[in-house]
Write a structure and sequence with these properties.
Radius of gyration: 26 Å
CATH class of the largest domain: Alpha Beta
Structural class: alpha+beta
Shape: elongated
Helix content: 25-40%
Number of strands: 16
CATH superfamily of the largest domain: Bira Bifunctional Protein, Domain 2
Low-confidence stretches: none
Order of helices and strands: EEEHEEHHHEEEEHEEHHHEHHEEEHHEH
Strand content: 25-35%
CATH architecture of the largest domain: 2-Layer Sandwich
CATH topology of the largest domain: BirA Bifunctional Protein, domain 2
Number of domains: 2
Largest sheet: 8 strands, mixed
Mean pLDDT: 96
Amino acid sequence: MAYSHASEVPQKLGKEVSLRGWVYRKRESGGIIFIIVRDRTGTIQASIKKDNVDAKTWKAAQDAIIESSVELKGSVKKDERAPSGYEIEGSVFKTISIGEPYPITEYQSTELLLDKRHLWLRSVKMTNIMKLRSYFFRYLRKFHDGKGFYEITPPLITRSAGETGADMFPIDYFGQEAFLTESSQQYAEAMIYSLEKVYTFAPSYRAEKSRTVKHLAEYWHLEMEAAHYNLDKLMKFEEEMVSYVAGQLVKNNEDELKQLNVDMESLKRIRAPFKRITYEQALEILNQKGKNLKWGDDFGVDEERLLTEEEEKPVFVMYWPRELKAFYQPINPKDERTTMSVDLQAPHGHGEIIGASERIWKYDELMQRFKEFEIAKNIKFNMANYEWYIDLRRYGSVPHAGYGLGTERLIKWMLNLDHIRDAIPFPRMINRVYP
């Protein structure tokens, strides 16, 4: 038997259709049971009239409760009283599984919805977000593939402890100390010497004890590295990529966006070029808005909000102080207080979505930065863990650059979500590792 989807029903007016799904809503009135059935494409109303069906079908409709899985068959009628303006007049209705009374009702606490996340994902809101999440991944891959990049698959377990290892999750790897990766950047750098332009879509892990609306302990990280790229070329690539994703959403996903009340016009305004300011200029803007920041201060959630609250498009903040950035970022030759780095801040206070920089590609410079970093941070690198990374500068090194995009942050911004936890199916946060 061929089954239709809920979204296809209006195109089959006057025809008989079969449908499979779950009971979304149900009510009974005067010998008629109205059941709204949902599937992955949406919802459609069905009516089961007692006088028109056999006793078995009527009982099945009576017994069905919210989230029962069902099958039905009937003729498509036009009915302005139905939510979609169309209705299936049922001739056959049966339950696959009735189940237990559904624990999520109309008004529930955030904590209950997180505890019952495995069920809340069935909601119309989360269904549409998860659909769009899949499209975000699709569009980001399509953009990089179209630019001649190769997707790579780096390890998620590493001995290279990033900058200090303080924000990484340690694990016992057969008696050796290892970590869940906070970034695949160094492995991507290794791959440019064979493939030249690469990207990776993989989870990253951060053990930051943060409770902000933009932090996850586990998130999906899009990281790109490219040989012979500099900061300017990197920024042009980023703004083209972000503009492309926004354009594809507008072109292909109007229905899902409307159901989430996303402002389509705001997405249409996301077009390159984006404003560029320096870290120093950003400090001036923030201090004019009432902050009291000095050189070397980092930006938190409040600063990011103030910086971009009036912007309609993302803003590049360039040339960050060397003490705020990683050991692999080269010093800015025009201002030795800063590095060749840039963050992309989303508008309307959604915060940083991309961190990027040129990479140190000369052996002597990298070794000097290791030493400077140890003194500045009062740490000691286990250089044996970085020997392979240093090797990349010994054998045919080239200038290169790359970025890291927090996919959930991009989703949060473009869909205007209140919290990043709704941009991922099962959020992992400082106080959340269940379900």
